[in-house]
Design brief:
By secondary structure, the protein is α/β, with parallel strands linked by helices. It contains 7 helices and 12 strands. The chain has a single domain, classed as Arginase, Chain A (3-Layer(aba) Sandwich), CATH 3.40.800. The protein has helices at residues 42-47, 72-77, 87-92, 112-120, 150-158, 190-206, 224-235; strands at 8-11, 27-30, 33-36, 56-61, 94-95, 104-105, 124-130, 143-144, 165-170, 175-176, 185-186, 209-215. A hairpin with an 8-residue loop joins strand 10 and strand 11. Helix 5 runs parallel beside helix 6 and helix 6 (190-206) crosses helix 7.
Length: 246
């Protein structure tokens, strides 16, 4: 059985399957905190809590930038007419590319953020990216945050903007990828992760962070077991318990 401390399953748990670019194995919510395996659902979650036509700020903590822009014209031509669509419709949205024989989902783990910025970026007050420098650099003014300085500086950075914050966290940020066939290993101490999340929790409580999205990205964390272990550390300072079904 799962322990979900008052939350709800927006996408019921489908098992510890491969997530890849498009598979959504679950999406869970408690108030303004969302947990998912695949980061592609994050854009939809943000739009449930912010008005993207009003000023907002973004803090992205992720091994990758998630701002692929190689097919942006095609993606923008296939956006939903109404952003009030439900999560199932959002995930099922597809696009046909000339050089690919079958339609693909519009939103993937590597482009959901670039699409969001292309559509709603004019209202962004501040953008901070704490990454490993993987992927396409964001096409927007932003500050790159040094990995080792994030826990000690996060409170200061979040106070730099008075606009509501989107805080977007991928657990693969905490992992080091070994060479060849070596499995990824968590390279951050529990204290590093806990201190970061205590600050996030304080700003959630104050209302400064309007929405928090957390992705497990199991393939980039050495498997579900590793990402779930780190998830426990991440959620503990927030007073949230989430045990995925067995």
């Amino acid at each position: 059985m799962s322990e979900a401390s008052g939350g709800e399953w927006l996408v019921p748990f489908r098992g510890r399957n491969y997530s890849g670019a498009f598979t959504q194995n679950f999406l869970w919510k408690r108030q303004n905190v969302y947990v998912m395996d695949n980061h592609r659902a994050a854009l939809w979650c943000w739009l449930q809590h912010i008005d993207p036509k009003q000023r907002y700020s973004l803090f992205h903590v992720d091994q990758h930038y998630d701002t692929l822009a190689s097919r942006m014209t095609t993606w923008l031509d296939n956006l939903p007419a109404d952003w009030g669509l439900g999560i199932d419709e959002y995930l099922a949205r597809k696009v046909k590319h000339q050089d690919i024989p079958q339609p693909l989902p519009l939103f993937g783990w590597d482009n959901y953020l670039s699409i969001f910025l292309a559509v709603f970026g004019n209202a962004m007050d501040a953008a901070y990216f704490a990454t490993h420098g993987e992927g396409t650099t964001p096409n927007c003014p932003h500050m790159n945050c040094d990995l080792w300085g994030v826990p000690s500086n996060l409170d200061y950075w979040l106070n730099e903007s008075h606009a509501p914050w989107i805080f977007n966290l991928d657990l693969d940020y905490f992992f080091w990828h070994g060479i060849d066939a070596e499995r990824p290993q968590c390279m951050m101490s529990e204290a590093y992760i806990s201190n970061l999340m205590k600050t996030v929790g304080a700003h959630l409580s104050s209302g400064k962070i309007s929405v928090l999205t957390i992705a497990l990205s199991p393939e980039y964390c050495g498997g579900w077991e590793h990402s779930e272990a780190v998830l426990d550390i991440v959620l503990k300072p927030l007073g949230i318990k989430l045990a995925l079904p067995r």
